[in-house]
Amino acid sequence: MISHVHKVRVYYEDTDCGGVVYYANYLRYFERARTGFLESKGADLKALMAEGTYFVVSEVNVKYLSPARYGDILIVGTRVEKSGPASISFGHRVTREGTDEVIAEASVRLGCVGRDMKPQRMKDVIRKAVSSE
User: Fold this and answer.
1) What is the pLDDT of residue 1?
2) All structural domains of the chain
3) Measured distance CA(8)–CA(120) in Å, rounded
4) What's the predicted TM-score (pTM) here?
């Protein structure tokens, strides 16, 4: 089940010399989609950062299934796969706008850390945001 949708336009700068989206750029797309997801659920990430709460990526698994190209509009669907006291796992699915063609699928695990970069329990606002699925 997809609970948040983020659109991405593929620009020339996103592609390799063959006009295909460079594989690492999907990580940027996933980051934007996760940020949009959390903000749509009421989490103010800027305020959390000011309080000393940060999220770091601890694990990523991406399956690239079909090439996206310059000029495409991609739909990045995001859902929470699992959440714990100090971590969240998100699932992402990228499709080309107007089609059911799956471009990529990913699972990304984030850890919640403090200013010292040591794990900390997630704030209530984040736990509520990711449990309201």
Assistant:
1) 52
2) 4-131 (3.10.129.10)
3) 32
4) 0.92
